[in-house]
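Chapter review. Work through the record for 40S ribosomal protein S7 before attempting the end-of-chapter questions.
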Amino acid sequence: MATNKFWKKKELSSLEQQVGLALTQIEGTITEVKNLRLSSVVDFTTKINAKKQVYLVFIPYPCLTIYNKISQKLLPELEKRVKATILVVAKRTIESKWVKKHRSQTRPNSRTLTTVYDGLLEDLISPSIILGRRTRVRVDGTKFYRIFLDESDQKDLESRLESIKDVYKILTTRDLEFEFRRDDTFYQKKGAKKVAQK
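Structure tokens for 40S ribosomal protein S7:
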């Protein structure tokens, strides 16, 4: 039953079976989960010395649009059933600009290191959005990135931020610092109810 939720994978680990079974149970309440597939599940608890279990779920890139539509409903349900912090990331590949099959071939922008790293960060903080980012350099010469998030998502994200920082550091070797601030732009997030402006 759990193997149906994984893309091109026959043998599953016990952790992957547990997450796959939880997803099949959620299908009854959230119907869009039927189209969602997973690539793999990795346990990051020991790597980041977390107090609570932290699982990183990789999904195929074509399933990212499905996940983004249902992430607000899906993540709390999945965390409740698995009893762990769950972070979801699309599987992306970085290509070297020197590897070419033909000399006129150019690398797509979506396969560059910067774009892949930015995409990983957006996936990790989903369903929130990034309002701004700054690159800062410490006195000793090391870099860190300050990420500004929407103040309205603070309650949902605050408990996950430490694990997001640590997992992102392992995946990309980049240091992050998060700040919450009010979004002063006049657009609305997808799925939000329209409020009459005075």
